[in-house]
Design brief:
The protein is an alpha/beta fold. It has helices at about 10-15, 55, 85, 100-115, 130-140, 150-160, 170-180, 200-210, 225-230, 245-255, 285-295, 305-330, 340-350, 380-385, 400-405, 410-415; strands at about 20, 35-45, 60-70, 75, 80, 120-125, 145-150, 165, 185-190, 210-220, 240, 255-265, 270-280, 335, 360, 380, 390-395, 415-420, 425.
Amino acid sequence: MTKTVGVAGAANAARGSPAIIRRERCRLCDSNQLEPALSLTATPPANAFTTSSEAALAQQRYPLDVHRCGACGHAQLLDVVDPAALFEDYVYVSGTSPAFVAHLEAYAGRAIDTVGLVAGDHVLEIGSNDGTLLGFFKNAGMRVTGVDPARAIAESASASSIPTINGFFTESLARDIAAQHGPAKLVCANNVCAHIDNLAAVVRAVSACLSGDGQFWLEVSYLLDVVDKGLFDTIYHEHLDYHRVEPLVRFFARHDLCVWDVERIASHGGSIRVKVCRAGARQVTPAVGQCVAAEQAARLHLAEGFASWQARIDALGLALGEKLHELTGAGLRGAGYGAPAKATTLMFQFGLDASSIEYIVDDSPWKQGLYSPGIGLPVVAGDYLKSNPADFLVVLAWNFATPIIRNNAWFTERGGRFVVPLPRLEIV
Ligand SMILES: [Zn+2]
């Protein structure tokens, strides 16, 4: 969902609270030895902005607890919010930056070389979004098929000549695609696998349409980076899985597939590109073992790695709470800056509400005029800050703190302070 800005609130409000199911078994190995590993404050769906403050405050909240599988070590949410409510009504906004397009072009070039794709080969993408990536394969002469559950996105991609099937990627759909267009030599899934509750079914579907010498490439956020860099706010209901290499190796082996290479990449604060082939088809590179060793050194295969992470998050929350108490106690007025999905996790976990911040500034016109999920703070445009001045701004989109502070130099010149909550508390 890298390129999609989603505001699902209005549709959800009309429909009522989305359903939730509780999973009892590990998403990767089917074991029932699941232990709570990291407990965060319950929230509504992170992108469920509403049309009134009252509606936000009335929203249902869902548990946000990461569990660790005692058998394979995989970290995952067990409380699964209905994916139809989270993804089908995504409003498509073309947010594809030139840098991101260049990244996708480079990805296609690399895949063509590594997999040995030639003109006429079939490339399939799961979660193909607006078809930008498939367009590069098409330009290189390959036949392409996209699959995406978001209706508006699939329709717009098909209209722009990237054949895109609107739906979830199932085994029967994969068989139909293979029957119609031939087996795929490359199946790719970027930033979608962590959203899928039944990952085993998707991998069976991949296997059903992959050619004998074909490869499956997936990109997911890397738990090692998430923990190392303190990115706990990437935990929200859309992200069901927090992947690392060791459990994935075992998972694919059970499907007669092999993780033959892993690359660590910079996307989303740190991700892995996992390359999978049929068992025995390629030699496994040393990168796979290197990742597993780094994960074990960080104790992420054990409960203690999560316990120390929880302690760090709790300490940060306390420090931020004390700082905000001090500022508001001195009569200062606060606001938030940035309303990305992850701000929902951050605000609930650190207790940020109307008692410390009055509104949230966000540059996306799609969110302005709406209210933050569960807490009901109004989302406003930057101009509002000038007419209703705050004394301090909590940077909720903290990964963009540097450009936000630079672009709002007038605010600090006027004596305003920026409170950057993560990765460590800083006051600018
Ligand atoms: Zn497991």
